[in-house]
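Q: what sequence does this backbone want?
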């Protein structure tokens, strides 16, 4: 019976994606990002419901207008740093707080889904380009100045949710330049109120296999916890912020935080960013693997 229900949900997911493509094609070209965001939030919530996943927003309470629009007029934006478990992380965060994600450029070249992700405002970064991080930081800075919410996965790859990988700091520099806060966001998946790996997108797993695992899960819940914002004060640099966000998320999830991998005692630098290849801190569509972790550099 569960397999039959999952099959029906699979068809519903496909139909919902087609609806999303129609909206992105016919409506989004005529709307600014802040007008798109409520629709993106609603679409993401329906997707989670179709997948049989219950969304639970925890931690600090969000301003209702911000939660709906993802933009706060008259104030700098906010930079979300989240742990990364699955492709569905993106839609869980969008369902809680509409955000622009930083993603690897190859995602935008995916048939259909890549086009849809592009239309919702994703910022793409080209791996292997010497000045990719500096160029991306400039774009992120402009969106933060406009009061938008930017989301980054600083681990650079996915895990099964039982651990955290070191948080890279390359894409945190714009928060200092704009003077906005960094918001740690903790993601946790449970099945029948117990920790689960059902949503984990790791190893050599394909997207369809991952989706099926989610669809057959029993009472799957996704917790999105917005933790205490971290200010970009003069006595901190981007490495401090990455480490502080990592520690906050680890404490909330009850997992061990990786040892500090940056020189936290160095003098604060307000705008410095060091290009790295491959680029950490992006939304990762490919499942995490040992080779991914070995190649990522702080």
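A:
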């Amino acid at each position: 019976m569960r397999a039959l229900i999952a099959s029906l949900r699979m068809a519903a997911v496909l139909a919902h994606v087609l609806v999303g493509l129609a909206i992105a094609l016919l409506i989004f070209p005529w709307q600014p990002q802040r007008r798109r965001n409520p629709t993106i939030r609603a679409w993401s919530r329906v997707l989670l419901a179709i997948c049989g996943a219950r969304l639970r927003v925890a931690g600090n309470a969000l301003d209702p207008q911000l939660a709906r629009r993802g933009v706060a007029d008259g104030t700098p934006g906010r930079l979300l740093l989240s742990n990364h478990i699955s492709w569905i992380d993106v839609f869980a965060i969008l369902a809680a707080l509409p955000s622009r994600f930083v993603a690897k450029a190859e995602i935008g070249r995916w048939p259909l889904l890549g086009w849809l992700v592009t239309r919702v405002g994703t910022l793409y970064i080209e791996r292997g380009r010497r000045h990719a991080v500096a160029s991306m930081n400039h774009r992120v800075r402009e969106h933060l100045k406009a009061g938008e919410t930017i989301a980054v996965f600083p681990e650079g790859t996915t895990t099964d949710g039982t651990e955290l990988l070191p948080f890279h700091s390359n894409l945190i520099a714009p928060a200092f330049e704009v003077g906005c806060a960094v918001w740690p966001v903790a993601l946790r998946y449970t099945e029948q109120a117990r920790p689960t790996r059902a949503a984990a997108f790791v190893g050599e797993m394909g997207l369809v296999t991952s989706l099926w695992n989610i669809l057959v899960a029993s009472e799957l819940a996704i917790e999105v916890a917005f933790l205490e914002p971290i200010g970009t004060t003069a006595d901190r640099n981007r490495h401090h912020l990455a480490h502080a966000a990592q520690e906050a998320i680890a404490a909330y999830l009850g997992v061990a935080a990786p040892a500090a991998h940056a020189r936290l005692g160095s003098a604060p630098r307000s705008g410095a960013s060091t290009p790295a290849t491959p680029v950490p801190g992006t939304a990762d569509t490919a499942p995490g693997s040992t080779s991914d972790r070995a190649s990522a550099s702080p």
